[in-house]
From TrEMBL:
It comes from Hondaea fermentalgiana. The keyword Metal-binding does not apply. PANTHER family: CLASS II AMINOTRANSFERASE/8-AMINO-7-OXONONANOATE SYNTHASE, LD36009P. This is serine C-palmitoyltransferase. InterPro entries: Aminotrans_II_pyridoxalP_BS, Aminotransferase_I/II_large, AON_synthase_class-II, PyrdxlP-dep_Trfase, PyrdxlP-dep_Trfase_major, PyrdxlP-dep_Trfase_small. Its EC number is 2.3.1.50.
Length: 445
């Protein structure tokens, strides 16, 4: 046994998704590109290439000013955080220092966290909220706190990996329904409670609780959740609802209040609202909002609040300020203007790409605009052609999407000007010709 352990390589070259890793190896230069500026509408990208042995990436020392179509900077706070939030951020740095050095449950619950929690709860229309240091952790460590063996989690098939891992870690039974299809959700619920192991025709519900988990906007599809229909099914079968608003809070709805506002669903109809500060707010961290009872319970049950240092107080202050601006509490129309600009920009960009004959996913008003590349070889080709033309884009391949589902995922920002977008579209148009990415609309609808 000792011999075997001695010989066991830490990284098994044949293990895991071997084919996917081989494929990725050849396109390493398209990922982990160092950026030497703030992640605003325009960024400085450091060029990189594979070393002479074809193994390790090295930077060439050159930086390129590129239009950034990849960051989740929906409301442009990454661009001008110093002029919009800087005063508060600097003050917070002086008061608290950069980090809390403790979990919330120990000595890391700082007054700015409490203030932010109150603001979040009011904004999303829930009695209480609690903030986490990371959006990913918010899902990964909350789901196991609220679901256990005996519970049933019914998850949208395309939910984010933080939800998938949170569901797995909970020990609950997990079932998936077809992406964004309320009809299929109903089929799955009925299978779980009615057509289960009970006598024919008899309602059989062997679960301590059933929680339906969905997202406001799906991060790889740019699709907006059909929340009204999903909530109706959940209510009909007395299931709880958990909605991840990472991409929808601050982006959807007239006042930025997310998917509930967009879909005409009252926040009371949702049991647990989750969101992150890394997108519309230009910060870090995440939140859970719900009943006071739920939040009190999480403070004693979530590993994210008990065993992991809390959100940086400086970031918490920046996010607080972003909330003020979005709500117009700074006495300006900056927030309102940006909420309008993000939708205008996203809809303009999506429409133009479709007119070009590209295969574009997602719904109106969604700032995520994925464009299908399909073939895996086109992933790197698109990224490199874009960089050659001073466009920084995020390309996505397996395992984040199916192996034949390669795509470029454009993220549109309120900080993009129409001129920026026009210029980008012109260059994208050139690339679509080079890579043969135009499909007739009759095929792709
Ligand atoms: N939920 C969803 C739907 C996401 O897309 C992401 C990340 N993009 C997260 C959670 C994790 O958030 P964060 O990056 O803030 O950790």
């Amino acid at each position: 046994l000792v011999k075997h352990v001695d010989e066991a390589p830490l990284l098994d070259p044949q293990g895991g998704a071997f084919y996917v890793r081989r494929l990725k190896h050849r396109m390493q230069d398209c990922f982990f590109r160092p950026i030497s500026s703030r992640p605003g509408a325009w960024i400085d990208v450091m060029e990189q290439r594979v070393d002479d042995n074809g193994v390790r990436m090295e930077t060439t020392g050159e930086t390129k000013r590129c239009l950034n179509l990849g960051s989740y900077n929906y409301l442009g706070f990454a661009d001008d955080w110093d002029s919009t939030c800087g005063e508060q951020v600097h003050a917070a740095l002086k008061i608290y220092g950069p980090a809390s050095c403790s979990a919330q449950g120990d000595a890391g619950a700082m007054s700015v966290h409490r203030e932010l929690e109150e603001v979040v709860a009011n904004f999303v229309g829930k009695p209480a909220a609690v903030v986490f240091n990371m959006g990913y952790n918010t899902n990964q460590l909350t789901l196991p706190a609220i679901a256990q063996a005996g519970s049933l989690l019914i998850s949208d098939k395309l939910n984010h990996t933080s939800i998938v891992n949170g569901c797995r870690a909970s020990g609950a039974k997990v079932m998936a329904f077809k992406h964004n299809m309320a009809d299929d959700l109903e089929r799955v619920v009925r299978k779980a409670i009615i057509e289960g192991r009970g006598k024919p025709g008899e309602v059989y519900r062997p679960w301590t609780k059933i929680i339906v988990v969905v997202e406001g906007i799906y991060s790889m599809e740019g699709e907006v959740c059909d929340l009204r229909a999903i909530v109706d099914v959940a209510k009909k079968y007395k299931c709880y609802t958990y909605v991840d608003e990472a991409h929808s809070i601050g982006a959807l709805g007239k006042t930025g209040r997310g998917i509930c506002e967009h879909a005409g669903v009252h926040p009371d109809e949702i049991d647990i609202l989750m969101g992150t500060f890394t997108k519309s707010f230009g910060g870090m961290g995440g939140y859970i909002a719900g009943s006071q009872e739920l939040i009190d319970y999480l403070r004693g049950a979530s590993a994210g609040l008990l065993y992991s240092a809390s959100l940086s107080p400086v970031v918490a202050e920046q996010v607080l300020r972003a909330f003020q601006i979005i709500q117009g509490e700074d006495g300006t129309t900056v927030g309102r203007d940006r909420l309008r600009a993000i939708k205008d920009n996203a809809n303009y960009f999506r429409t133009k790409l479709k007119q070009m004959g590209c295969s574009v996913l997602g719904d109106d008003d969604s700032p995520i605009v994925p464009m299908m590349l399909f073939h895996s070889t086109k992933i790197a080709a698109f990224s490199r052609e874009a960089l050659d033309r001073d466009l920084a884009v995020v390309v996505v391949g397996a395992p984040a999407v199916p192996i034949y589902g390669g795509r470029v995922r454009f993220c549109i920002s309120a900080a993009h000007t129409k001129e920026d977008l026009r210029m980008a579209l012109k260059k994208i148009s050139e690339i679509t010709k080079v890579l043969n990415l135009r499909y007739t609309r009759s095929i792709f609808g």
